[in-house]
Specification:
Blueprint lengths: L16 H11 L11 H4 L2 E3 L7 H24 L13 H8 L9 H12 L44 H28 L1 H14 L19 H6 L2 H8 L2 H16 L5 E5 L4 E6 L8 E5 L12 E6 L11 E6 H10 L19 H5 L47 E4 L5 E5 L43 H12 L7 H8 L3 E2 L4 E3 L4 H14 L40 H20 L1 H7 L10 H12 L3 H13 L13 H9 L9 H18 L6 H11 L16 H11 L2 H31 L8 H9 L1 H4 L9 H26 L5 E3 L2 H15 L14 H4 L6 H7 L7 E3 L9 H34 L10 H10 L1 H4 L3 E5 L4 H9 L4 H4 L3 E5 L12 H14 L7 E3 L6 E3 L7 H16 L10 H7 L15 H11 L8 H4 L5 E6 L2 E6 L29 H13 L4 H11 L13 H9 L6 H7 L1 E3 L8 H10 L4 H12 L15 E4 L9 E3 L4 E4 L5 H13 L8
Parallel strand pairs: 13-14, 19-20, 20-22
Antiparallel strand pairs: 1-10, 2-3, 3-4, 5-6, 7-8, 8-9, 11-12, 15-16, 17-18, 21-22
EC number: 2.3.2.26
Keywords: Transferase, Ubl conjugation pathway
Protein name: HECT-type E3 ubiquitin transferase
Length: 1320
C-alpha cells in the first residue's frame, strides 16, 4: 500500500498533528468567494471547519512532514542508530556492521542531504526509515554548551518546567503592565544618549561583520585520499550546506549568543512556550535573546525585543529554505493593532486572513484587558479537548469533528449575507508570534509561524508569486513609526473582530469548472506548466447542451481592469475549491455524475479534466493523489474477519469513510481520465498508435527525426507528460490501489463463498472497463462533440491507459522476469491484462500491448527454461504468463529455446550413460565381461539408454508405414533427443541429414497421412484445409502417431506443408470454438450460410420457410449421409455403428426462436462432438514431445504459424534478404537480373516449388523472410547443367547461362524434377 507521511515525526520533535494543525489554522489565510461571483456559483459555496480541507494548511503541513523526513534520513545516513543488528540499507549502523573491521567513510552534510531529499521524495518514503532509536549526534567544538563557570550567574539556565496556560497568561498580563513603564524609561534614556548609541552600533557592526562559520562545521576525520572530501569538502560546496534553513538558524543563534556575552543589562521575558528570553540592551537598540526556564513570578517584558517573521515564498518546493526578516516588537505591536492576535477558537469562530470588512471593524466592541479573565480560549472543533481548554494540546489528540455550542459568539452577517459568528479575541498571543504549545527543549524542527499581523498567504507551489508586492509589504512594516501610544495600544489590542470560515464549493458542476478555468486564464493566474497544449483556445472549447455560460458580475465602479488583489482572491478561492472537491470521494463523484449517480460519458470526463489540468495541473494531480489514498481503506465487512483490517482502521487518521467497490471503480475511472488528459492532443488515431509503439521500446523517439514515425516535437511533448513527477506519482499510487482493491474483492468473495447468502463482488477493473465502453452503454453525451472527435476519443482512452500502465511498469521493473503481483507494477500489469481481455470491445489490437523493452533485456535462453519451473502465487507472477507483452517472433524464440534445452539435456544424459558403459565393460585385461558375445548383448540392451540421437530409417516408397514402425512404442527420452533421418538409402540416395533431409521426410510423411483416401482426414475442395473425418474407420492409435509426427517436426524446429483451420489450434490451446469467425477460415461457405440465418430479418419471410433447415447435424461418410438431432444425443456414431443406427425422421425445423441455439450447437457439433475421439488421440500424440505449458505462449494464429509456417511468399521481400556468392557485381549481374525477372512472373505454386527446391520447405518460417536463409551461388559458366541446391543451407547453385531463355528453361526443368537427394 501507499500511505502518506503524516504519521512520521522526528524522535526529538514532540509537536503532534493536532498542535500543528491548530497552529496552522491560526496562521493561515482563509480564502473566501469574491463579491463579484455570479449568483449561480454562490449557491455552491460552503464553509469549511476542518483544517485538513484548507489548501494552505495542507501545503504547510506537507512541507513540515517533508522536512521531518529529510532530517530523519540525514541522521540515519550520517549517524545511524543504536542497534547493533540494524538491517536498513541506508542506515550508517548497518553499513558499519556489514563492513566489519574495514573503515567506513561517513557521508558529508551535502551528499547526505541530497540522498535524504531523494529518499523522502519517493511515493512511500517511510519504508526506508530505520525504526531503531537514533544514535546520539556528536556536538562540534563550536556548538558545545558553555560551562557554568564561564557564564555569568544570571545567564545560567534552570531545568525547563511545564507551565499551564493559566499561569502563563497571568505572567504575561503582569509583564505587559511593567513593560509599558519600562518602555517609557527606555525611551527617555535613548533621547539622552544619542552619541553613545551611535558609537556602540558601530562597534556592534564591526563585531558582527564576519559570522562565526565554525558553528556550522561538524567534526570529520581528514582523509586526503578521499574523493568525497576533496570535492565536497571545498568551500564552494560547504557554502551550499551553510545556506540550508537549519544552518542559517544555527548561524543566527551563534551570532546572538556571542553578542549576548557582551551585553550589560540582562532582562528576562516570559515567552509563550513557557521559557524565558534573557535580554540585554545594546547601544542603538540591538537586542539578543537566550531562552531560560519560566519562573513562577511575573517578569517585565521588553517592548523593543526583536522577533523573527517568516515570509513564505509562494513558488517554492517542499524543501525550499525559509527567508527570515527581523522586525522590532514595536512594529509587530503596531501592525497587530490592525490585525489582532488570535487565540484557539472553535472553527466557526476562527478568523479569516485579511478579508475583514471595514464596516464590521467599526462595530467591534472594545473590551479592557482584564475582561477576558473570566473566559477561556477555544480551539477548532476538530482539535479541542474536553478536559481543560487552557491546557496544551496533548500528543494523543485525535482529529475528530465535534460540534459544541459557542457561548461568546455574536451573530453577524458575512460578506455574502450568511450569518457568521463573532468571537472575543484573546490577548495571550499578542506578545509572541509563537503558539501556545507544550514546553519542550530544542526540537529538530521548529515551526516558524507568522504573527497574526502578517498572516501567511495561501499560495500555490506552482504559481508564481508577485515578489514586488511581498517586498513592498515588508518595507511598509519597516517604515512604520517605532513607538505606539499606550492608549492606542490598549484600544487596539482588546476589541473583538469579525471572523469568517474558509469557503469552498460543495462540488464542481460542468458550468462551474468552465467558469473557474476561464477566470484563471483571463486573469493570467493559471499555472505555468509543460503539458501540451498549454491552454485551450476557443476552437477547442465545448459547451453543454442547452447551457448558458457563467460569468462574473462586474458593476460600474469595478468596470476597470481587475486589481492584483482581486485576482489573487479569485485564484486562492479556485485553488481551495479544486483541492477540497478533488480530494474527497463524495464531492468528486458528485461532480462527475448525474442526478442518478451515473458517471458522465467518458469524453465529458476527459474534457473536464483537460480544462482543469491546463490551468492548475499540479493542484489537480496532487489532489487526486490524495484522493487515491482513500482507496486503500479496507471495507467494513473485512473488519469483523481480519485483525489487520481493524488495525488499519485504528491507525487511519483520515475521516474519510471506506469506499464501496462501485465507488472505488468510479474514482479510479476519473483518475485514469485525468492521466489521459495529461497527454498531448493528437489529430488522428494513427498518431496514437505510433506514439504508443515508440514508447513500448522505452524510448522517447525512435532513431533520428527523419526516420521516426512521428515528429520530434510530438515525441518530446509525450515525454513531458509521461515523465511529469506529479502525473507519474498519481499513476503509481492509482495502480497500487487497483491491486489492493482486487485483493479486497478476493477476500470479500471468499466470505461470500462461506456464507452463501450474497452475490460475489465484481472485479474493480471489470467495473472500470465497463464504464469505458460508452458506445455499448448508449449513454447520451453531456457535452457536444463532433463525430470525428468522438471516433478519435474511443481509441484515445484505452490506448493512453495502456501507455500509462507501460510507463509505470517500466519504471518499477527491476530487470527480472519474476515480478510482484501487487504494488504499482502488479496493478499496472493487472490493468493491462483486463484491457487485453476486453480488447475487441475497446477497438484494440494485439500490437497495442507489446512491450519490446522487456524482450530486449531478458535472457532468451535461460529465462524461458526458468519459467517452466515457476509456480505462480499470490506474491509473484512471471512475465511469460502474459505473452501478449512480447512479439510473436520473440515468443517463438523462447519456445524453441525451451525445446533446445530439453533436447540438450536428453543428449547429454545419453552421452554420459554411453561413456559410463564403455568404461565399465570395455575390452582389455581389466574388463568385467571378457566374453565378446555377452558384451554385444549388453550393448544391444543398453542401446536405448546410450543412443545420443533418434535415428529413423525410412524407405521412400513406404514413408508412413516405416514412420509408424519407427516411432511406435518409443520411450519419451528417445523422442527428446536430436533427430536424424536416413531417407531412401535402400534406393541408393546419399542424403546426409543436416536439416534438409528432415524437411523432405516430414513433407512426404504428412502428405501421405492426410491423404483423404486413407479415411483419416478430409480436405476441403475450396480452402484445401484438412479436418478429421467424423466416424473414421482408422483406429485411434494412428491418429496418435500422426500427432507424434507433427510433434516431432515442431520440436525440431521444422514447418509442415499442411493447412489446418484455426479451430484445431484453439482446441489444442484449450480455447472454446463458439463463434462464427472461429470457423470462417476452414468452412467459409458454411460460415456464410449460418451468418445469413443468424442475421435474417423475418420481414422478408419466415426463417423456416426461407431456409427450410432441420435442427440436426449431417455429414456424408463414404457415400452415406449420417444425421443426428442436436440436443437429444451428445455423441457421434463411429464407423462400426453407422449401419446399426438410423437417422432421425421428425427433427424439428429451425425457427426464429431457436436459430441462435442452432448456430451455436452446429458449431459445437462440427468442431467437437463429431470428431472428439479422433482429436483426443491426435492431441495426445501432439504433446508427446512438446511441453503443454510451452505452447501457452502462443495464441491460435501464432501456433498455426509455428506448425505450418507462413504460406504467403513476397518475391520483393525474398529478393531483399537474398545473399549472393561469386557474382562480382552481385545483384547487378545480368544473370541475377534475369533470374528475378523470371521468378517475379511465377504463380503461387511455382513460387512454392522454388522455395521448396532451395530450402526443402514451401513455407516461410515464423518471423518472416528475415529468418529465411536464401543464397544464390555462382556454379560456373555452362548451358548444359541444371540448377542444384543445398537444402540444408538454403543455397541455390546457379550456373551463368548465356541468355534469359536458357535460364528460364533450365530452372523450370530443375523445379519439375526435384525429387530425391544427392547430397543434402
Amino acid at each position: 500500500m501507499t500511505r502518506d507521511t503524516y504519521r512520521v515525526h522526528d524522535d526529538r520533535d514532540p509537536v503532534s498533528d493536532a498542535e500543528m494543525y491548530a497552529s496552522l489554522w491560526a496562521a493561515a489565510s482563509f480564502p473566501r468567494l469574491p463579491d463579484d461571483a455570479p449568483p449561480e456559483l454562490k449557491k455552491f459555496a460552503i464553509d469549511i471547519d476542518d483544517p485538513k480541507r484548507v489548501y494552505a494548511i495542507h501545503r504547510a503541513s506537507r512541507r513540515h512532514h517533508f522536512q521531518i523526513l529529510v532530517e530523519r534520513y540525514i541522521l540515519q545516513i550520517r549517524y545511524g542508530c543504536q542497534s547493533k543488528t540494524c538491517n536498513t540499507a541506508t542506515c550508517f549502523s548497518c553499513r558499519k556492521r556489514l563492513a566489519g573491521a574495514a573503515p567506513v567513510r561517513r557521508y558529508n552534510a551535502t551528499s547526505a542531504r541530497t540522498l535524504a531529499i531523494y529518499m523522502a521524495s519517493q511515493d512511500n518514503p517511510e519504508q526506508g526509515l530505520c525504526h531503531n532509536s537514533s544514535a546520539p549526534r556528536p556536538v562540534p567544538e563550536g556548538k558545545r554548551p558553555l560551562k557554568s563557570k564561564d557564564v555569568p550567574g544570571d545567564l545560567r539556565t534552570t531545568p525547563v518546567r511545564p507551565q499551564d496556560s493559566r499561569s502563563r497568561r497571568r505572567s504575561i498580563e503582569t509583564g505587559q503592565k511593567i513593560e509599558e513603564d519600562d518602555n517609557d524609561a527606555k525611551e527617555s534614556d535613548r533621547k539622552d544618549k544619542p552619541s553613545s548609541r551611535k558609537s556602540s552600533m558601530g562597534d556592534a557592526i564591526s563585531r558582527r561583520a564576519w559570522p562565526d562559520l565554525t558553528s556550522l562545521e561538524e567534526p570529520t576525520p581528514t582523509d586526503h585520499r578521499s574523493f568525497v572530501q576533496n570535492v565536497f569538502g571545498t568551500v564552494a560546496f560547504k557554502m551550499l550546506e551553510w545556506l540550508t534553513p537549519r544552518n542559517l538558524d544555527l548561524l543566527a543563534r551563534s551570532e546572538d549568543k556571542n553578542a549576548m556575552l557582551e551585553e550589560e543589562s540582562p532582562a528576562d521575558v516570559v515567552l509563550m512556550d513557557g521559557s524565558k528570553e534573557t535580554k540585554t540592551c545594546v547601544e542603538k537598540g540591538k537586542n539578543s535573546t537566550v531562552k531560560e526556564s519560566a519562573p513562577a513570578q511575573d517578569v517585565p517584558m521588553d517592548d523593543s525585543r526583536r522577533t523573527k517573521i517568516s515570509v513564505e515564498s509562494g513558488n517554492h518546493s517542499l524543501h525550499a529554505p525559509e527567508t527570515t526578516i527581523e522586525h522590532s516588537q514595536e512594529e509587530i505591536a503596531q501592525h497587530s493593532s490592525s490585525s489582532p492576535e488570535i487565540s484557539y477558537t472553535s472553527p466557526s469562530e476562527l478568523p479569516t486572513s485579511t478579508n475583514t470588512r471595514p464596516d464590521s471593524r467599526a462595530e467591534e466592541k472594545r473590551t479592557p484587558r482584564g475582561s477576558n479573565q473570566g473566559s477561556h480560549s477555544k480551539r477548532p472543533s476538530s482539535l479541542r479537548t474536553k478536559s481543560d481548554p487552557l491546557e496544551p494540546v496533548p500528543k494523543s489528540l485525535v482529529n475528530k469533528m465535534t460540534s459544541e455550542p459557542m457561548a461568546d459568539v455574536n451573530p453577524t452577517l458575512s460578506s455574502h449575507g450568511n450569518s457568521m459568528p463573532r468571537c472575543k479575541m484573546s490577548k495571550t498571543l499578542i506578545t509572541s508570534p509563537k503558539m501556545q504549545m507544550v514546553d519542550t527543549g530544542p526540537a529538530l524542527h521548529e515551526l516558524k509561524f507568522l504573527p497574526p499581523a502578517r498572516i501567511l498567504e495561501s499560495e500555490s507551489p506552482s504559481l508564481k508569486d508577485d515578489e514586488s508586492e511581498a517586498s513592498h509589504d515588508v518595507q511598509a512594516i519597516r517604515n512604520k513609526p517605532q513607538s505606539v501610544p499606550k492608549e492606542t495600544r490598549f484600544s487596539q489590542l482588546a476589541p473583538e473582530r469579525q471572523v469568517s470560515l474558509p469557503q469552498s464549493l460543495s462540488y464542481l458542476s460542468i458550468e462551474n469548472i468552465e467558469l473557474l478555468c476561464d477566470i484563471l486564464q483571463s486573469d493570467g493566474t493559471f499555472e505555468k506548466h509543460f503539458l501540451h497544449p498549454e491552454g485551450l483556445d476557443e476552437t477547442l472549447k465545448r459547451q453543454r447542451n442547452e447551457s448558458v455560460p457563467l460569468s462574473r458580475t462586474i458593476s460600474i465602479q469595478n468596470s476597470f481592469p481587475y486589481l492584483s488583489s482581486v485576482k489573487q482572491q479569485w485564484r486562492s478561492f479556485i485553488e481551495q475549491s479544486f483541492f477540497d472537491v478533488l480530494s474527497r470521494p463524495e464531492s468528486l463523484l458528485r461532480s462527475f455524475s448525474d442526478d442518478k449517480g451515473r458517471l458522465f460519458d467518458t469524453q465529458t470526463i476527459w474534457y473536464l479534466m483537460l480544462r482543469m489540468t491546463r490551468v492548475a495541473p499540479s493542484l489537480v494531480f496532487d489532489s487526486l493523489w490524495n484522493l487515491a489514498g482513500t482507496l486503500f481503506k479496507p471495507p467494513h465487512k473485512l473488519e469483523a474477519t481480519y485483525e489487520w483490517a481493524k488495525e488499519f482502521q485504528s491507525q487511519e487518521v483520515s475521516s474519510q469513510k471506506a469506499l464501496s467497490n462501485h465507488e472505488a471503480a468510479q474514482a479510479i475511472n476519473i483518475c485514469l481520465h485525468a492521466l489521459v488528459a495529461a497527454a498531448p492532443l493528437v489529430s488522428d488515431a494513427r498518431q496514437l498508435a505510433n506514439m504508443s509503439r515508440i514508447r513500448s521500446y522505452g524510448l522517447a523517439m525512435r532513431g533520428r527525426e527523419a526516420s521516426s514515425l512521428e515528429p520530434a516535437t510530438l515525441c518530446l511533448q509525450y515525454e513531458d507528460a509521461f515523465t511529469n513527477d506529479l502525473t507519474v506519482r498519481l499513476a503509481r499510487r492509482l495502480f497500487a490501489a487497483i491491486s489492493t482493491r482486487r485483493r479486497f474483492t478476493e477476500l470479500l468473495n471468499l466470505q461470500t463463498d462461506i456464507r452463501k447468502d450474497e452475490k460475489p463482488q465484481p472485479d474493480v477493473l471489470e467495473t472500470v472497463l465497463g464504464t469505458l465502453k460508452f458506445l455499448d452503454l448508449g449513454t447520451p453525451p453531456i457535452i457536444n462533440f463532433p463525430d470525428d472527435e468522438r471516433d478519435l476519443h474511443e481509441k484515445r482512452v484505452p490506448t493512453l491507459i495502456l501507455d500509462w500502465t507501460r510507463t509505470v511498469m517500466l519504471q518499477e521493473w527491476e530487470g527480472a522476469a519474476e515480478v510482484p503481483s501487487d504494488g504499482p507494477f502488479g496493478g499496472a500489469l493487472a490493468t493491462m491484462a483486463a484491457i487485453y481481455k476486453n480488447r475487441k470491445s475497446l477497438l484494440l489490437g494485439d500490437i497495442h500491448f507489446r512491450t519490446e523493452y522487456f524482450a530486449e533485456r531478458l535472457d532468451p535462453v535461460e529465462m524461458p527454461v526458468e519459467w517452466l519451473s515457476f509456480n505462480q502465487n499470490k506474491r509473484n507472477v512471471h512475465l511469460l504468463d502474459y505473452p501478449y507483452l512480447f512479439n510473436p517472433s520473440t515468443l517463438v524464440t523462447y519456445f524453441r529455446a525451451i525445446n533446445y534445452s530439453r533436447m540438450n539435456q536428453s543428449f547429454e544424459a545419453a552421452q554420459a550413460t554411453s561413456r559410463l558403459i564403455y568404461h565399465t565393460i570395455a575390452e582389455g585385461s581389466g574388463s568385467l565381461m571378457p566374453d565378446k558375445h555377452r558384451r554385444d548383448r549388453l550393448y544391444e540392451r543398453l542401446r536405448t539408454a546410450a543412443s545420443r540421437f533418434t535415428v529413423l530409417e525410412i524407405r521412400r516408397d513406404h514413408v508412413l508405414v516405416d514412420t509408424f514402425n519407427s516411432i511406435w512404442r518409443r520411450e519419451e527420452r528417445e523422442l527428446m533427443r536430436p533427430l536424424k533421418i536416413r531417407l531412401g538409402e535402400d534406393g541408393g540416395e546419399e542424403g546426409l541429414d543436416s536439416g534438409g533431409v528432415q524437411q523432405e521426410f516430414f513433407r512426404l510423411a504428412i502428405a501421405e497421412a492426410l491423404d483423404p483416401d486413407y479415411g483419416s482426414f478430409t480436405i476441403d475442395s475450396r480452402t484445401k484445409m484438412a479436418w478429421f473425418q467424423p466416424g473414421s474407420p482408422e483406429p485411434l492409435w494412428k491418429f496418435e502417431l500422426i500427432g507424434m509426427i507433427v510433434s516431432l517436426a515442431v520440436y525440431n524446429g521444422l514447418n509442415l506443408p499442411v493447412t489446418f483451420p484455426k479451430a484445431l489450434y484453439r482446441k489444442l490451446l484449450d480455447e472454446e470454438v463458439t463463434e462464427l469467425h472461429h470457423i470462417s477460415d476452414g468452412w467459409p461457405d458454411l460460415a456464410n450460410g449460418l451468418t445469413s440465418l443468424f442475421e435474417w430479418d423475418e420481414k422478408d419471410g419466415l426463417v423456416e420457410d426461407v431456409f427450410a433447415r432441420t435442427y440436426e447435424f449431417s455429414v456424408e461418410q463414404f457415400g452415406t449421409l449420417v444425421s443426428r438431432e442436436m440436443g437429444k444425443v451428445s455423441q457421434w456414431p463411429q464407423f462400426a455403428d453407422i449401419h446399426s443406427s438410423t437417422n432421425p425422421e421428425d427433427a424439428p425445423l429451425v425457427t426464429n426462436e431457436n436459430r441462435n441455439g442452432y448456430v451455436s450447437d452446429y458449431i459445437r457439433w462440427l468442431t467437437d462432438i463429431s470428431i472428439r475421439p479422433q482429436f483426443e488421440a491426435f492431441k495426445k500424440g501432439f504433446f508427446a514431445c512438446i511441453d503443454r505449458r510451452s505452447i501457452s505462449l502462443f495464441d491460435p494464429e501464432t501456433l498455426q504459424s509455428v506448425v505450418e509456417g507462413i504460406q504467403e511468399i513476397d518475391v520483393s521481400e525474398l529478393r531483399r534478404v537474398t545473399r549472393y556468392v561469386g557474382w562480382g557485381g552481385e545483384a547487378t549481374h545480368k544473370t541475377i537480373r534475369d533470374f528475378w525477372s523470371i521468378v517475379k512472373r511465377y504463380d503461387i505454386e511455382q513460387k512454392r516449388k522454388l522455395l521448396e527446391f532451395v530450402t526443402a520447405s514451401d513455407r516461410i518460417p515464423v518471423g518472416g523472410m528475415r529468418n529465411l536463409s536464401f543464397t544464390i551461388q555462382r556454379n560456373g559458366v555452362d548451358d548444359g547443367h541444371l540448377p542444384t541446391s543445398y537444402t540444408c543451407y538454403g543455397i541455390l547453385l546457379l550456373p551463368e547461362y548465356s541468355g534469359k531463355e536458357v535460364l528460364r528453361e533450365k530452372l523450370a526443368m530443375a523445379l519439375e524434377n526435384s525429387k530425391g537427394f544427392g547430397f543434402a
